[in-house]
Amino acid sequence: MQKKPKTVEAVLFFNEQGGICTQMLYPEFEALLDGVVNMPSYVGKQVRMVHLSINPRLKIRSVVCFLLEFDESGRPDKSWNIPLQHLAERAGRGPDLGAGPIRLACRSQCPVSWHQGHLWDPNMAPGKNHLTAAREAITRNTLGLLVEDEASVAASAAELQVSGEENWHIADSPRAGDPDALELAEKINQEQRVKAAQLIKQQRLRITSLTKQYEEELAKLKFTSADFSAEQQEKVRLAEESLQQQVELNVALKAQLAIQAATFQASREELTEQLNRLERDDKSSTAALRKQFESEIKARINTAVVEYQEQIASLQKNLKRAEQKNTKLQAEQQRLQHELEHASSQTGEQVLERLAKLGVVFVVYHPGAGHLTIPLKDITHYQRNTMAYVAAKCFVGEDQYRQWLEHYQQPCCVALLPSGERCSIPIDRVDSPSRFVADESNCCARHMVASRMQTTG
Questions:
Q1: What are the residue ranges of helices labelled H in 282-347?
Q2: pLDDT grade for 414, boundaries at 50, 70 and 90
Q3: Alpha-carbon gap, residue 242 to 244, rounded angstroms
């Protein structure tokens, strides 16, 4: 008897470029947590992972985006304890990955608030969507899951694929008195409302993720500016302390000069008293002694005055330099404060320009082109037409790069069968866009020969 497939759980590992590097079933992941095995390739790293619930038709029903750290021996953190299955069961609604809206638990949509710090937000930008990458990996069935035969099971209403937005249309007005038509119209209307609500929620989730990313970058900029401002304030404080020390030293020297002047005055009075005594003793030598004493006193006073004047001049110069330095530091502090206020009110483009002036480069990854360093002047061109920009870097046309990218993401035959369906036979992948030839590289051997025969004919 054939074993009936059932819903299974799997864990996918994402690398720094957003690609899937490791896949394993949940029992294997539990063995990793129990320390049965280790992973040397993730030594000392914090890895982004997703926990998936997959139905028998290889459709994803729930996604939990979580973080896991590995120690120096390649073993996961022993204190890690996140109830993945509980979060998956209580998660909110997410985008439709082929079987209706999934249950999505991430940092911006966490059903248990105290686990929010251990989760991460998936990137939902076109070309770098983590959820799309997970869906394609599960569709390729690398894990070897048992798949339910769609022909043997009738599809339920919940598993029916909703048509794309471009195929949405207003149903014809039901005929009056036709209950089946009214029920069908109501059902179509309800499906359109659900689809619109899912799209709005997905866009809100993406806006929330981008807003948090911008707030983190702004917080880092403010933190850097605050450190620099504190450093400048410390320099100003040291300059003010130095200035205060110079002022105190100047006051002390002036006081010392006053004391020495008083000492000289006392010496002069003493010499005058000696002169008076000598005048009384010998009037004949009074004039000579007076002249000698006065000249000696004047010489001493002049020498002391010159020395202290030089010291005062030097102190005044130091004081003036300290005042100028203090003025410059205050002006620099005001300028930095103004720049901080100006940076807080800048738009995203102005922040990008400032980051580019500081030496920050913008690096993206695209299949076929690898990591591209985008100059600031090319940001507008890159945003306007990403495919054309990447195709130019690969030295091919935009149409050829799009066809190659479709072939690279799903290497199978795109030739049409007589029934109008694709052949979809797996073929070898062409890794370089320049080596890709339409209708040959993306066709199996049988359709490639048929295409050449038609071209020859």
A1: 286-344
A2: confident
A3: 5
Phi, psi of 103 (to 5 degrees): -95, 120
Q: Per-residue b/e over 139-177, b at no fewer than 16 CB within 10 Å? A: eeeebeeeeeeeeeeeeeeeeeebeeeeeeeeeeeeeee
Q: How many CB atoms within 10 Å of residue 200?
A: 10
pLDDT at 361 over 60: yes
φ and ψ of 422, to 5 deg: -75, 150
Helices assigned H by DSSP within 18-120: 26-33, 84-90
11: three-class secondary structure by DSSP = strand
Query: What's residue 154's pLDDT?
Result: 43
Segments making up each domain of the chain, as ranges: 1-147, 243-337, 361-456
Are 80 and 68 in contact by the 8 Å Cβ rule? The answer is yes
Residue 188: closest CA among 177, 203, 172, 166: 172
Q: Strand 101-105 to strand 60-69: parallel, antiparallel, or no bridges (unpaired)?
A: parallel
- Round to whole Å and give the CA distance between 363 and 303: 73
State phi, psi for 63 to the nearest 5 degrees. Answer: -135, 130
Distance of CA 255 to the CA centre of its chain: 62
Residue 172: predicted pLDDT: 44
**Using N-to-C axis directions, what is the helix angle for 179-281 and 348-357, rounded to 10°?**
50
Q: Which of 42, 151, 45, 54 lies closest to 97 in space, CA to CA?
A: 54
- 163-205 confidence digits (pLDDT tens): 444 444 434 444 545 677 788 878 887 877 777 776 676 667 7
- Which pLDDT score is estimated for 48? 94
pTM: 0.40
For the chain, how big is the Rg over CA atoms in Å? 42
DSSP structure string for 349-386: HHHHHHHHHTT--EEEEETTTEEEEE-GGGHHHHHH-H
What would the pLDDT profile of 252-268 be if each residue is shown by its tens digit?
A: 999 998 998 888 888 88
Torsion 22-26-31-32 (CA) sign:
positive
Residues of 365-400 as b/e, b for ≥16 C-beta within 10 angstroms? ebbbbeeeebeeeeeeebeeebeebbbebbebeeeb
**Coil, strand or helix: which one is 44?**
coil
Q: Read out DSSP for 236-281?
A: HHHHHHHHHHHHHHHHHHHHHHHHHHHHHHHHHHHHHHHHHHHHHH
C-alpha closest to that of 430 among 450, 410, 455, 452: 410
